[in-house]
Task: structure prediction
Amino acid sequence: MQYDHILIRYGELGLKGKNIRTFLIKLQQNIQQSLITYPDVKVKRTQGRLFVILNGHDPDPIIDICKNIFGIYSLSLAVKVKNDEREIRETVLKMMSKETENKTFKIKAKRANKDFPIRSLELNRSIGGDILKNVPHLKVDVHHPDIEVVIDIRAEGTYILTEIIYGPGGLPVGSSGKSLLMLSGGIDSPVAGYVMMKRGVKLEMIHFHSPPFTSERAKQKVLDLTKKLTKYNYHIKVHLVPFTEAQQLIFKHYPKRYGMTIMRRVMMKISEAICQQENILSITTGESLGQVASQTMESMNVINEVTNLPVLRPLIAMDKEEIVDISKQIDTYDISIQPYEDCCTVFVPKSPVIKPQRKRVILIEKDYDLTEAIKTAIEETKIIKISHTNDEAIDELL
Result:
């Protein structure tokens, strides 16, 4: 049986009421973008449905791509035929004749096109009888069948489908705005990015690197993690911030115990500046409450103070085991545990303050002005654009 369509079901989007069209257009665009290497495969929107038209292509690799597109609840391979009883009957029988094992089945006709002359129940009985007569090793089970054959009769034609393949659900990436993810290279931040994309957020990344204290392999690790996440967000920009000068000045001129807090405040200031340049409305981090010194309630309160942008922390209430499980599921774990340190780990003081006071931090910061170092870091930030199919370095200074 040559399948010619993939039916896309969109689950949660059906609850969007009058706004559903906006979400469906975004989902359609995302599917088409993800299938860019298949230029003659088209995505079509009909009332209540999305279809991928295969135009003769092998459906398996296309299904593998679609299974990672947020907004897709499930999908099924389908054969499209005319709204003709004889053609529907012959197609279903041909499809079921290929079953070689003893299985149970159920016919489920849905008559969205009320002009079709045969009612759903009548079609169920008639076609089910044909199968029992011609494929004797198959039996009917209307409650828990091994195979459910759906006959979806619509104005433009009838779609016949069986297997249901589940997608990731969520909302289409880009339907909930854009956020800048602080991507460190550890386990947590890629997972935070995945969770945000599932809620429809389009991501750009920011990474702070401090050569020679951090290696080129540490930077490559971040690019490799971004590449993994392009399965869900076709192309992602990475802002690489040279942080050596600012970081050295922080740990030279301020008390060591407060170095981590002040460093995170500087990172937040730089991230906000990048957001303003890129028209990004929020900053996302991989922080989990109480996991390390900079992730106590007091630390986050002091760090947040330097920006007016929302700071989104999707992992805030997750424990480490939950985060690790997701990182393995999305295939970022093995990259994240590579032993190449980022700038947050190479400069960690032995006893960082875990409950910093805002007044105390502001007073300490007055001892040395980091304005020029922050300005230089922003101006010398470089962008690398990574897509699911290729990487493109952009030699452009922001």
Notes: The longest helix spans residues 259-278.
